[in-house]
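Hey, quick one: can you model this chain's 3D structure?
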Amino acid sequence: MTAQLTIAEALAEIVRRFAPKTKGELRLAAETRLIEEAGIDSPRMIDIVLEVEDRFGLTIEDQEAQSVRTFGDLVALVCERTGVK
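Sure thing. Here's the predicted structure for all 85 residues.
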């Protein structure tokens, strides 16, 4: 298993925790749009960012968080920040 896959799995767990309950079994792919498809609003995105920072021991700047539109964007950001290729 690659480190990137492990990061994606950890991020999927975090996103699912904050996705609205009505979404049922949320299927997360790289192209899944967090706002439109997963129902992640601004307060939930803040919660996700805080959880990601705690889990991976990094700091995500506001402008970086605002540029995250898809699940793939989130995975790429965390991989870049943790040095995982």
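One thing worth noting: The domain at 3-20+27-82 is CATH 1.10.1200.10 (Non-ribosomal Peptide Synthetase Peptidyl Carrier Protein; Chain A).
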